[in-house]
Write a structure and sequence with these properties.
5-stranded parallel beta sheet, homodimer
Chain lengths: ~575, ~575
C-alpha cells in the first residue's frame, strides 16, 4: 500500500489526488492544504470581483468532505507543511487552527504549492489598502474593501493576466482605474504591436494606462479637505478624500483608494528547498519529464516547477491551469509505479479584456530576438467569419516561423471573436510539428456563420508558403517607417482609404486596379515597398511588379500592421 | 505565353484565375461562366432568403469588370461551353445572350463546373412551385415566389446542409415548414444519435419533421374552397388554399405552397465526358493529386471531381467550398508548370441549425461499419467553457479511433457554442497524424470565458487513452438498452438526477459517493454495466469496482448518450 502525501489542494494537487485514487483503491492518499479551500476555481476570482460570476460558491468546486466521499482522500485544510525531511521521508505539519504540530510520513510526496504573488520591496507595500489576488481569502478581502470603503479610484500595478482581468473587474464595478506597467507594454506573452491593440482598448474604456511606469512608494493620504467655513459651501457633502498617495517611477504621484499588486508570481520553493531537492535555473523546482524532482520519492507539479519550453527546450516557468492539471495526472500515475511523461510546454494562453480577446502560443518575437533564433513574421488581418454574414469582426494574426524549414515558432491573435479557435488550431499544428506549409491545407469547419472558405489560418499558411517558396518578398513596418533614399513606398489602396484609414507619411499612391496601366510612372532604379490596407492587394501588386522587372517587396499586414507598430501609448 | 481557359467562375474557377495571374503576368486567362455571375457567395444564398444577409449585393464578391481590372482576366458570363475537343484543344462555346456559337483554343483547360442539384424523376417535379437552390438566379426565383405568392407553408425535401439551412430560412420568414428526409436521419455526415440532437431542435422550433419519408409525386392542388353561401360566413376572408398536393412514400399526402428540392448534388461531368477524360468510380471527374485529369492538358477542381478520402484513400465526392478554393490554387500553379499537390480530404464541415451547430471531420461510424474497419467510439459531454462562468452551454463530442493504434478516424460535435473550435482542433490533429493519446496533451487556450483547463478535446483524449491502456473498459448504449441476464446496470447518479434527467429502464441505483461503502450489495457473478449522467462518475465507479474484483464496464457518454441513441423521431 503506497502512502501518497500531496501538498497543495488546488489544480495540480487536486488532479493528482483524484487520479491516484482512480488508479489505486489501496493507496493511502493525504492532501494537505494550508488555506481554507481545496480545488477552487482560482481563474474565476477576478470575475467574481467584477460581478460576472455572481455566486461565490460557484468557485468552490470541491470540499474536503466531497473529496473524502468520492475519492477516499484524507483532505486536511488549514494544515501547513513546515518542513520536509527527505532522508526520513517525513513532513512537519502545523495545524493552523489549533497551532498544533505533528509529523506525517510518506512513501511518495507530491509538491503542488503553486506560486505566490511577487510583492516588491516598496515602501508602504504592506498598507492595508494594498491587495494581491491569489486565493479565495484574497478575493474576499478585496470584495470586503470594495463594499466597506466604496473606493472611487483603484490602481492596478502590473498588466499581466491578473492585472488586466482586475482592471476590467474594477471598471465593471464603476471604479475609475489606473493601470501601472513598468515595461513598455501590457500582456508580456505577446509582442508590443499586438499589445497596442490592448492599449487602445484600455484607453477606449477610459482606463488611465501608464506604461513604463513603476510604483515606488505607497503613502497614506494626508490630504485634508477644505472645511466649509473656508469654502462657504455649507450645503455640499464633504468631498471624497483619496486614501493613498502613490509615488511613481516617472516622478509623478497619483492619489487612489486601493492598490492591486499584480506584478507577477514566483514559484513557492520553500518546501522543496527544505527537502533538499534541486531548483532549476529559473528558480522553480526542477523536475524530469515524469514530474519527479531530484529526490526519486518527491514529485512536483504546477506553477512551482520548471518545464521545457516547446521550441527550444529551455527551462520555463509557466503558471497556467491546463499544464498544472495534466502534470498532476502524470505525477499520480508515476507515484503509483507507471511511466508517464509530460511533454514540452507551449504556454498557450488567452486573456479577455473588455470586448477583446488576445491569445498566443509558442515563442514571441521578443524571445526569438533574445535567443538570436532566425525567424520570419507575417501578419494577416481578416474577418472572424464570412464578411457577408452579419456579425463578422476583425481578426489580427501574427505568425512566427523558421524562414528555412517553415517550422511554426509561435503565433499571436487578437480580436473580438474566434481568437481562441485560431490559436487553438495553431497550437495543435505547432505541437504536431506541422510546417507553415501545412497550414494552407488544414480543413477547418466552414459555413458563413463560423468561418471562411479560406480561414485566417489557411491564409497565414499561404502567405508564409509564398515567402518560403520565394513567391513573395516581405518588408516590415519598421522599414516602411524609415525608407532609405533608394526606396519608394507604393500605396496601392484606393484614395478614399487613405482618407478614412490614414496614409503613410510619404508614399506614391496608385490603386491596384490601375497599376498595370500605370507601370511607367514607377522608377526602375528604386526598391518599391508595396503596401495596401492588410497585405492582400499588396501581394497582387508585388507579383505584378516583380514580373515586370521591378525590385519590390510587400508590406506584411499592410497599413493596419503599420499603425499597430507605430502607435504610441 | 500559356493560354489558360477556365470553365466555371465560382469558388474553384475564380481562385484558379486569380492565382494564375499572380503567378504569371504573361499568361492569357479566359474564364467562361454560363450564368450571370462569377465568384458569388453560394454558401450565403440560404441566409439571404432567410433575411440574415439583408443585402443581395453582399453576395456578389467580384464582377467581370473587377476581375478584368485587377487580374487582367477575360471573364465571359452567359457563355456556355458546349463541348471540348481534346485532340484539337478547342472548345465550342455558345453565347447565351446572342445565341451565337464560337470556338476558343486552349493550352491548358480547367474544368470547374460544379455539381448540380439532383432532381429525381418524380411526377410533377417541374411544377413551377418546385425550386432548387444552386445559384443567384435560383435564389432570386425563390425570393420572388415568397414575395408574390406569400406561401403559408413550404416543404423542404432533403435534410442535408442546404435543406436544413432552407428550413431555418423559411422558418425565419414565418412560413410553416415540413422537412421530408428519405433516410432515418438528417445531416448524413454525422451518425444517427448525433443527428437526433438536430431532430429535437427541429421539433422544438415547430418544424414538421418526417424521417424515412420520400416525395413520390407533386400535383397542383385542386382543393376548392367552401363558398360563403355554403358556410354562411360571408364576412370572413377566403381561406388560404394550398398550392400543391404532395404524395409521400409513406402513403400519406401533404398540402403545401412551395417545395424546395435539396436531395443532394451530382457532379457536372458532361464537358469532361465530351472531352473524353476519365470519370471515377463515384461518378465525378477523376484527377491526380496535381488536379490533372486523364488528359495532361485538362485540369479539374471543385464539386465535380473525386478526391481521396483522408483515412482510406477511397475516392470521394466532397462538394465543399474550402477544398474547391485550395484545389483551384493548386491547379493554377500546375497549369503554369509548377508541381503542387492536393492532399486527401477529411470533409470537415459544419452546419448551423437555429441555435445549434453540428460539425464533423473524417469518417463517421456508419462508414466505418460499412468498411468493416475496426473502431472504438467514445462520447464526452461537457461545458463549452468553465461552468462557473456565465453562458456555458453543453458540448457533445463523439470521437472515433482505431482501438489498436489510437489513430483518429473521425469526430462529430454538436452544441450551441464552441463546436467549430473543437472540430477544427480535431481536424488538425487528425491531419497531423496525431493519436488520441496526443489529444490529452494539447495545450489549448484557456480562460474561464473561453474554455476549461481540461478542454472537451483533452477529456476525450484522456478517456480514449484510458481505453487504449486498458484502464477503462467501455460499454455502449446499445448494450445497456438490452442487458443480458448475466448483466446488471449500475446507475451511480444521485436519486434526484433520475427524476430530473430520466432513468434507465431497469437499473440498480447506488450513488457514487456511497458506492465504496455499499460494495456488498453488488453481485460478483454478474457483469456490471456502470452508468452515470455523462460517463465521468461512471469512470470513477468503474475503477473502484474493477479494483475490488468486480467485472464491470463503463457506459461511454452515460445516460445523456443513452437518451440520444434511444430517441425516436
Amino acid at each position: 500500500m503506497t502512502k501518497i502525501v500531496i501538498v497543495g489542494g488546488v489544480a495540480g494537487g487536486a488532479s493528482a489526488a483524484a487520479r491516484a485514487r482512480r488508479m489505486s483503491e489501496t493507496a493511502q492518499i493525504i492532501m494537505l492544504e494550508r488555506g481554507e479551500f481545496v480545488s477552487f476555481a482560482n481563474c474565476g476570482l477576478p470575475y467574481h470581483i467584477g460581478g460576472d460570476i455572481t455566486s461565490r460558491s460557484a468557485l468552490l468546486l470541491q470540499t474536503p468532505e466531497s473529496f473524502k466521499k468520492r475519492f477516499n482522500v484524507d483532505v486536511r485544510v488549514f494544515n501547513e507543511v513546515v518542513s520536509v525531511d527527505a532522508a526520513k521521508k517525513t513532513l512537519q505539519i502545523k495545524n493552523l487552527l489549533t497551532d498544533e504540530s505533528y509529523e506525517e510520513s510518506y512513501d511518495k510526496l507530491l509538491l503542488s504549492p503553486g506560486a505566490s504573488p511577487v510583492k516588491p520591496p516598496i515602501s508602504g507595500i504592506n498598507n492595508p489598502h494594498v491587495f494581491t489576488l491569489r486565493n479565495v481569502a484574497d478575493m474576499d478581502a478585496i470584495i470586503a474593501a470594495l463594499i466597506a470603503q466604496k473606493p472611487q479610484h483603484a490602481t492596478v500595478v502590473g498588466g499581466g493576466f491578473i492585472g488586466l482581468e482586475m482592471v476590467e473587474a474594477l471598471h465593471q464595478r464603476g471604479i475609475r482605474t489606473s493601470l501601472l506597467e513598468l515595461s513598455p507594454q501590457v500582456m508580456a506573452p505577446v509582442d508590443p504591436e499586438m499589445a497596442n491593440i490592448l492599449h487602445r482598448e484600455l484607453l477606449n474604456k477610459g482606463v488611465d494606462l501608464r506604461l513604463n511606469t513603476g510604483l515606488t512608494a505607497v503613502d497614506s493620504c494626508d490630504a485634508l479637505p477644505a472645511e466649509p467655513e473656508a469654502t462657504g459651501a455649507y450645503d455640499q457633502p464633504t468631498a471624497h478624500q483619496p486614501t493613498l498617495k502613490l509615488s511613481l517611477s516617472s516622478g509623478q504621484s497619483l492619489t487612489t483608494d486601493m492598490v492591486i499588486m499584480a506584478v507577477g508570481v514566483k514559484p513557492e520553493t520553500m518546501l522543496a528547498s527544505s527537502a533538499g531537492v534541486a531548483l532549476g535555473e529559473r528558480g522553480g523546482i526542477k523536475v524530469d519529464s515524469r514530474m519527479c524532482t531530484s529526490d526519486p520519492d518527491i514529485y512536483a507539479v504546477g506553477d512551482a516547477v520548471e518545464t521545457p519550453e516547446f521550441v527550444t527546450g529551455a527551462a520555463a516557468l509557466v503558471p497556467l491551469a491546463g499544464p498544472a492539471n495534466r502534470q498532476g495526472r502524470i505525477a499520480a500515475d508515476n507515484m503509483l509505479g507507471l511511466d508517464k511523461h509530460y511533454s514540452r510546454t507551449q504556454g498557450t494562453a488567452i486573456c479577455k479584456l473588455f470586448d477583446l480577446a488576445i491569445a498566443s502560443t509558442g515563442l514571441n518575437e521578443k524571445a526569438l530576438k533574445r535567443l538570436q533564433q532566425p525567424y520570419e513574421k507575417i501578419y494577416v488581418h481578416t474577418a472572424s467569419h464570412a464578411g457577408y454574414y452579419p456579425g463578422a469582426t476583425p481578426v489580427t494574426l501574427k505568425l512566427l516561423f523558421d524562414p528555412k524549414t517553415g517550422q511554426i515558432l509561435g503565433a499571436q491573435a487578437a480580436g473580438m471573436d474566434g481568437i481562441d479557435k485560431r490559436i487553438d488550431v495553431l497550437a495543435v499544428a505547432q505541437r504536431a510539428g506541422m510546417s507553415v506549409r501545412d497550414l494552407q491545407d488544414l480543413e477547418l469547419t466552414y459555413a458563413p456563420p463560423f468561418g471562411s472558405a479560406r480561414d485566417v489560418v489557411n491564409q497565414a499558411g499561404m502567405v508564409a508558403t509564398n515567402v518560403l517558396d520565394g513567391d513573395e518578398e516581405l518588408c516590415h513596418s519598421e522599414e516602411v517607417a524609415q525608407p532609405s533614399a533608394e526606396q519608394l513606398i507604393l500605396d496601392v489602396r484606393n484614395p478614399p482609404e487613405l482618407v478614412n484609414a490614414g496614409a503613410f507619411p510619404q508614399a506614391l499612391n496608385i490603386p491596384l486596379d490601375q497599376l498595370r496601366q500605370r507601370l511607367d510612372e514607377l522608377p526602375k532604379d528604386k526598391e518599391l515597398l508595396v503596401a495596401c490596407q492588410v497585405g492582400l492587394r499588396g501581394h497582387v501588386a508585388y507579383r505584378m511588379l516583380c514580373q515586370h522587372g521591378f525590385k519590390a517587396r510587400n508590406l506584411t499586414g499592410g497599413f493596419k500592421t503599420f499603425q499597430m507598430v507605430m502607435a504610441k501609448f
